[in-house]
Amino acid sequence: MSLQHAIEETLLATFAQHPESLRKNLHAVTPDMFSEANRPIFSEILAAAVQDEQPDLILTTAKLRKNGDLDKIGGVGKLTELWTSPVLLRNTSKTLSNLRQGYEVQKRIQALKKASESLEAAFQQGSDLTEAIQQTETILAESGKIPGKALNSKTLANAFVDTLEEIEARMQRGGALPGISTGFATIDKKTQGMQPGRVWVIAGKPGDGKSVLMQNFLEAAIEQGKGVRMYPLEMSQQEQAYRILCSQGNLDNQLVWKGLMSRAEQAALHDSIKRLYHAKADIVDCDGASASDILHDIEQSDAQVIMVDYLQLLEDEGRKGGTREELIASISRRLKRTAIKSQKVILTASQLNDNNQLRESRAIGQDADHILFLEKQEGNDSIRRVNCQKNRTGERFWTLDLNFFGQYYKFREPTA
What we know:
- There is one protein chain.
- The protein is an alpha/beta fold.
- The chain contains 17 helices and nine strands.
- It has a nine-stranded mixed β-sheet with strand order 3-2-4-5-1-6-7-8-9.
- Helix 1 (3-17) packs across helix 6 (75-84), helix 12 crosses helix 14 and helix 15 packs parallel to helix 16 (324-342).
């Protein structure tokens, strides 16, 4: 008898003699988790348990005989053994966990075979390999989804301990930011900086400076020695680097682009390059990359601050047939889960619709921890108003006017 088969029979005996143990775990066990020989027995025990009845040996034997399953499952002798052998209730949770693990291993093995065969067929037939790879990734991802996942929890008392430790740590910092400075004193004061596991959304209409503000946040992180990673979806790696150099050197981008820099400006450019040469900063080539590719790359990177510019430009070949709003909502949720799982700061931008609302999905607002709207001030293109719409654990609905130096790709907070 295999180990998995022994685990199944141990659980069957427990459930047959103590159906309340099955009722407590209905969410965590299904007939598919049992072998073909044991599945009919479990199904009969389950049918009795969900009706709050005690599984009966004689009745179960009669039903299995009627269905033609009695010989298949091992006969009357096996059933009698299950109903009479001693069981240890205290081991039920561990045994059930072993059953689920064995079932997951079997599903993954089957998925690997299916994915391998599918990919091999696509290669031999000259089919679209990009789509085939996406399908195999979906097959493998689905194989890990098992009903009844055990959820981790902690008592309120333990949660209090963790909270008090965090409060004490903040008190010991003497008012220092718990997060990474954004480079803007007022924003830092209102938000407590860029904290791990949080998503920031900078929203605005085209030309309002969304990308510039995110870039300035990143530059502040670089100056603090933090690792950053940029995913520019609407520009090349070279253009992103060009913008950062202009900002760092206070260089007029048009003069740099046209090659009309003065000697002082050329010196400033070289100083910027020297200063940033060893920065822990990467610019990712996103050409042809899906949302899944980018999210996976974020998880694997060792950067602390991430910039995805911008949200509505993300695509995902794995989701077909849904609306654009459903797609963006899905990506937004996954972006938040990635931030929490990897404990990174993720900065992204979102366009606004004609009603000054986040475009294409309300889920963006639900998933983000911080939402800052950027607004041009009528008659003055050199000022942008920051309007805080969401600020988790902090003050909301505050405003801040920033000086905008578009030619330098830079915002500055006015001095008092």
